[in-house]
Design goal:
With 170 residues, the protein is an alpha+beta fold. The chain is built from five helices and seven strands, in the order E-H-H-E-E-H-E-H-E-H-E-E. The chain has a single domain (3-169), classed as 3-Layer(aba) Sandwich (Aminopeptidase), CATH 3.40.630.30. It has helices at residues 12-25, 34-42, 66-73, 103-117, 133-140, and strands at residues 3-6, 47-53, 56-65, 86-94, 122-128, 145-151, 163-169. Helix 1 (12-25) packs across helix 2.
């Protein structure tokens, strides 16, 4: 039903489809600009993958080396520490029309496989709490949580709600 493609280079058609999905999933104040996605999709150190249903993008994951995220976020989360061989979830979206069909598990399986290929020993993220996503990740990584703490008024959500900063090991 779904296919996963790990992107090896920037493609304009992918950017356009990700922006459409972003607009479908998030309120305007949470949506990233096209330049942000172009930068992330163009960096070969990052991991970018899309979930496809036919030619439609119905989900995507964007990960950056944890060290890069740390440099960008240390002022916003002073308790965040540097970590070696870890990738940080920059973004993850699933089309609401495709929820409950195994797409999250498929994307996560591909994320873990690709990060391991690059020598990673885990993942880190600031993950939403209000929508239950933090709990979904915790169940997926069942007992492999290395660190978890609440960050109130997280910037990634327009400072409107908390996030759980979580680090998972493999």
């Amino acid at each position: 039903m779904f296919d996963i493609e790990v992107l090896s280079e920037f493609r304009e058609d992918v950017l356009e489809k990700i922006l459409l999905l972003e607009a479908k999933v998030f309120p305007p104040s949470w949506q990233f600009e096209a330049e942000y996605f172009q930068e992330k999709l163009s960096n070969p150190e990052n991991i970018n993958l899309v979930a496809l249903k036919g030619s439609d993008i119905v989900g995507y994951a964007m990960l950056v080396p944890h060290s890069q995220a740390y440099e960008e976020l240390e002022e916003d989360d002073p308790q965040m520490t540097e970590r070696e061989n870890v990738f940080y979830f920059e973004a993850l979206d699933v089309d609401p029309d495709e929820k409950g069909k195994g797409l999250f598990r498929l994307i996560m399986g591909a994320v873990v496989e690709e990060t391991k290929k690059r020598g990673a020993i885990g993942l880190s993220m600031h993950v939403r709490v209000v929508n239950g996503l933090s709990d979904i990740f915790a169940r997926y990584f069942d007992g492999k949580i290395l660190e978890k703490r609440r960050v109130e008024g997280w910037i990634g959500f327009g400072e409107e709600e908390p996030a759980d900063y979580t680090v998972f090991g493999y």
